[in-house]
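User: Mind token order:
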Amino acid sequence: MKIIDAHVHFSSIQTFVETAHKLADVEYNEGGLLAEYEQLGVVAAVGMGLEESRVGAFPDEEAPALMGLNLKNRPSQIGVCIGINPFALTASELERLDAKLEDPTVVGVKIYLGYYPYYAYDSIYTLVYELAEKHDVPVVFHTGDTYSADALIKYAHPLTIDEVAVKHRNVRFVMAHLGDPWCLTAAEVMYKNHNVFADLSGLIVGTRNRVEPHMDTSNPYFDHFRHALVFGDSYDRYMFGTDWPLVQVRPYMEWLAGIIPERYHEKFFYETALRVFPKLEGLMK
């Protein structure tokens, strides 16, 4: 079975570098990623654009308006979701975004709710949504808990996506992390809005030892997540993603394969990602 990883990072973010080496036991570079992917048949991935203006600064107002993947030697099968810094989003930067979205390697846009203090429906993002519609690319939102203690999680609540989805019906929106811990709310937003999808990345951070205890179905820690998946009844709109390098690919894939009903595995691990990110097809090897 072909696999697409719909949520990875490939940027020089200090906290990611530290987590990769100290907690996840991941070689955070081109070779480390390709070694994991080649073992598992991962044919493409979506990289979430992210940069910091100085070491350890993210989220910061001084990051580039349009954030990319700035680790060296990005593998060619990784499409870029351009990250948005709303504090620097001027008219000229929106013109640059318009041009960048013509690039076949740019597969979407990423908005970091919570990391920046704006709701999804704030007018600062309206023109971004219009450009996403113009170029037929999705908008991915960070939703739920944040990796930084300096972020404000009220802005990342998945309920805020409902208003955006209603106002922009021709745009595909993706809730990264299914809004965890507010997974049930995220599932309701998906159930109500046909143009809303979710990747199931980043729910666990660390090595296989962190993942394996949750493979025991008697462990109640992720009962809220399992309940949300069933309640939402949207298995054709969930996508596999890891949040690499924060977790190793194989154990995370095995964990989710045990939760998603087998009859949906083709959609979950491959087909839905191509439906959401159609430009990935041109990047696959």
In short: The two ends are 14 Å apart (CA to CA). Residues 265-276 form the longest helix (12 residues). The first strand starts at residue 3 and ends at 8.
